[in-house]
Amino acid sequence: MKIGDIVNYTGQPFDGPSIGGLILDSRARALDVDDPRSKKNVSAHQVYWASHDTTNWVLETKLEVSA
After folding, report:
1. 6-9 β-sheet, strand order
2. How far is Cα of residue 54 from the mean position of the Cα atoms in its chain?
3. Does the global pTM surpass 0.85?
């Protein structure tokens, strides 16, 4: 995955369906969440979701490139 890719979220929806997100940034980083596995640097992408008008960091394992 790379910046500019259109992606879908494959985990549990955080607020309705999450399809057609746009990757804005990609890097290995620590995420500020309760899961201790995400405290170390993990592959994550900053995604803008037009359907929710929000941007958030998502683990790469929870995304798939839209066909």
Report:
1. 54-59, 42-49, 21-29, 6-9, 63-65
2. 11
3. no
